[in-house]
Design a protein that fits this description.
This is Indoleamine 2,3-dioxygenase 2. Helix content is about 55%, strand content about 0%. It is an all-alpha fold. The structure holds protoporphyrin IX containing FE.
Length: about 400
């Protein structure tokens, strides 16, 4: 049942700790584990060599020989998160080892059963999600704080860059998440100074996220993103290459369908939208709401808590103060800028790269050409239509000063 805004009158102040959100790292898991207990060595040995095993077409054979281990020896939340990271990467590699036109449609029981078991423990669907790929997949390489991934797919520096730049965007959002909590508490108190400060902190944080996103250009090659990274993130829902989904052996007789990994599964913008009162069109909202089922349940609960909190927009409208209106609008303007910038990234890494890949295939002898999903039909257009609608609804939320 959804909490109601009135309940906030008697509620205690909103805090991060209750939702597995860190003061320092936000939704990123603080200092994720890199090793599992020795019992799980067969998983770790495969996971650590995943890029080589996939590139040499040996992963599927190695996984088929893997012993069936259960998840009962995992000690606590952090080991469960690492186990899911490891099994989700192995599963994506297993399905897509031979490319996007020749997926494996059955996940063998020795992989499917523990993957589903640990997913149930964590309340996540049994497919790679943003919280595996990014939130659980970073470590400090040296005391200077340079970052490294824990588990990788093929794609070398570009893959590392894609994961770690996304982690930096999450890190840049941390002051913004704290600002949302401060603002909600400031409305409850009420404290006008604290609210104004929180709105300013939020807009600065969103601008930092846009700057961090810009590092994608420095580290990620669009052709490698398109031809390699994108493939390993593909899911088995609405994917013509796997029309019925994936059979999880030992788990379900029927194939199951799940969407692939995407930063649409990041909790950050869902929280900002709820806080700022951005309401998306039906189709976009349906997709974005579905993505909440691909988030850790405590993060999803935080979005719902922010949604149930006293409405900022109503407060701004009733306050009649121009400086509140300006600070609120500024948050929306920089959120529009972030979303517009993200659209230019998607155009470069998906749409333009897909067109280049198609051009290259047309120059190949017939028979060798593969036809990736994004080149068929109107996949690219649909993505841009969605992203523009989400951006434009953010723009429409801006309030106009009373004349
Ligand atoms: C090469 C880099 C990137 C590409 C190609 C890309 C692509 C996409 C695509 C195709 C979508 C549409 C939904 C879907 O198909 O899942 C999407 C949505 C989204 N992406 Fe990205 N993305 C990239 C990087 C990022 C980063 C670093 C972030 C920030 C953490 C991000 C945040 C989002 C969000 C929040 C959405 C949902 C739409 C919205 O709320 O505006 N993306 N992205």
């Amino acid at each position: 049942m959804e909490p109601h805004r009135q309940d906030w009158k008697i509620a205690t102040a909103l805090s991060l700790g209750r939702y597995h959100i860190s003061e320092d790292y936000g939704f990123l898991l603080p200092n994720p584990l890199k090793e599992l207990p020795d019992h799980y060595r067969p998983w770790m040995e495969i996971a650590k060599k995943l890029p080589q095993l996939i590139e040499s077409h040996q992963l599927q054979a190695q996984v088929d020989k893997m012993p069936l281990l259960d998840c009962q020896l995992l000690k606590g939340y952090r080991e469960q998160r690492l186990a899911r990271l490891v099994l989700s990467f192995i599963a994506m590699g297993y399905v897509w080892q031979e490319g996007e036109t020749q997926p494996r449609e059955v996940l063998p029981r020795n992989l499917a059963m523990p993957f589903v078991e640990v997913s149930r423990m964590l309340g996540l669907p049994p497919i790679l999600v943003h919280s595996d790929m990014v939130l659980t997949n970073w470590t400090k390489k040296n005391p200077q704080g340079n970052l490294e991934t824990i588990i990788a797919f093929p794609g070398g520096e570009s893959l590392r860059g894609f994961i770690l730049v996304t982690a930096l965007v999450e890190k840049a959002a941390v002051p913004g998440i704290k600002a949302v909590v401060q603002a909600v508490n400031a409305i409850l108190q009420p404290s006008q100074d604290a609210l104004l400060q929180a709105l300013q902190d939020l807009s600065l944080s969103i601008q930092d996220m846009t700057r961090a996103l810009g590092q994608m250009h420095d580290y990620v090659d669009p052709d490698i993103f398109y031809a390699v990274i994108r493939v390993f993130l593909s899911g088995w829902k609405d994917n013509p290459a796997m029309p019925t989904g994936l059979k999880y052996e030992g788990v379900s007789e029927e194939p199951l369908q799940y969407s692939g990994g995407s930063a649409a599964q990041s909790t950050v913008l869902h929280v900002f939208d709820e806080f700022l009162g951005v309401r998306h069109g039906k189709e976009s909202a349906d997709f974005l709401h579905r993505m909440r089922d691909y988030m850790p349940p405590s993060h999803k609960a935080f979005i719902e808590e922010v949604r149930a909190a006293p409405a900022l927009r109503d407060f701004i409208l009733s306050s009649g103060h121009d400086h509140f209106l300006a600070a609120y609008n500024r948050c929306l303007e920089v959120l529009v800028e972030l979303r517009s910038y993200h659209i230019t990234i998607v155009t470069k890494y998906l749409i333009t790269a897909a067109a280049r890949a198609k051009g290259r295939r047309l120059n190949q002898p017939p028979g060798l050409a593969e036809l990736p999903q994004a080149c068929r039909g109107t996949g690219g257009t649909a993505v841009l239509t969605f992203l523009k609608s989400v951006r434009d609804k953010t723009l429409e939320t801006i309030l106009h000063p009373r004349g």
